[in-house]
């Protein structure tokens, strides 16, 4: 179910992940999201089991930068890790993600 949900969200959000995601998440974070932050969220939605190292390699920024951005998302309740570091998965606030489909 998680894989299908991630794929479905990825398809639904598609291009909307750009500007609208930045605006909505930016409001929740109290700042405008950068391109790297948008890519992090997009990649996590498309692959909830992605690791920090994989995110770093795919986006082209350091693992420290990924960790810092993830910490901001976690602090604001946008992202959480479920399960162990190995074998767990990420969850993006689906209620927040759903607002992108309505706007």
Automatic annotation (TrEMBL):
InterPro entries with a match to the protein in the record: AsnC-type_HTH_dom (IPR000485), WH-like_DNA-bd_sf (IPR036388), WH_DNA-bd_sf (IPR036390)
Gene Ontology molecular function terms on file: sequence-specific DNA binding
Origin superkingdom: Archaea
Pfam family, one: HTH_24
Full protein name: Winged helix-turn-helix transcriptional regulator
Species the sequence originates in: Methanosarcina mazei (Methanosarcina frisia)
